[in-house]
Give the backbone structure.
Amino acid sequence: MAHRTGTVALVGRPNAGKSTLLNQLVGARIAAVSPRPQTTRNRIMGVVTVPGLQAVLVDTPGLHGAKSELNRRMVMAAEAAMAEVDLLCWIVDAFRPHDEELAARFAGKKVVVALNKVDGFADKPKLLPLMGAYGQNGVVVPISALTGEGTDTLLGEWAKALPEGEALYPDDQITDAHERDICAELVREQVFLLCGQEIPYVTAIEIEGFDETRRNEGYVTIHARIMVEKQSQKAIVVGAGGKMIKRIGTDARKRIEALLDAKVDLRLFVVVEKDWTANPRLLRELGYTGE
Ligand SMILES: Nc1nc2c(ncn2[C@@H]2O[C@H](COP(=O)(O)OP(=O)(O)OP(=O)(O)O)[C@@H](O)[C@H]2O)c(=O)[nH]1
Ligand SMILES: [Mg+2]
């Protein structure tokens, strides 16, 4: 078969496992993953290269009924990605009932359905009714984004659906995202994992400094601002005696060190920016443009 190359958007509901699949396929943590819905806020690009196929992936925010300005821009970013790609890979959670609303929305589009989280099903025949229902939208491949089960079959189905073409990226390139932006994602991920209540949804990260003058000796220094909306939220992120911010810093640093393959000095500062989630100028500065 001729070599295939094309763009694939990972789309679906919040929490279905889109970012987990991106990380699994590129073999690194470049997208934030958490048990909370609406973890992803922007499009994140990844490249998967296997014999005969190069797929340029776009991880997108989950499709949901957006209310706030930030959420509206998240959904816009997902829709913009969907309009531009060769193929949609619709990630669905095998633990949830058939999603008729999105099925109607994707009808007639070129779609491969990834029925995700099947590692949680000891009894695989139980998946058959769901596979039948989603089969109306396209080929259905049961996968586990977490373990990688089924992902080879998924790539095979993508290859069948993508156009012929030569690879566009070197085979060791996994993303075009800037390292500093991925670092911001990895800090934000820890806020999603460690902070309760509304905190993740009022937090944004800005990398203020990324000093790699000693990178060849294996050291990188990163200064990041953790932005929240109110003083009371700042108190929660800092935690009693600075405990929470310390934990966020330690856990994020480990993941950033793995990404950069260097020792990292990660310095975090928590700042209050009143109502940033509704402020168009700040949203734009933070890269939440809806594109
Ligand atoms: N058991 C199991 N859990 C999974 C699998 N894939 C994802 N998860 C879990 O599902 C949760 C959501 O995963 P994400 O990858 O953040 O989901 P997402 O679709 O990117 O979500 P948003 O960014 O909020 O739209 C996390 O707790 C993951 O660990 C899987 O194959 N098996
Ligand atoms: Mg995500």
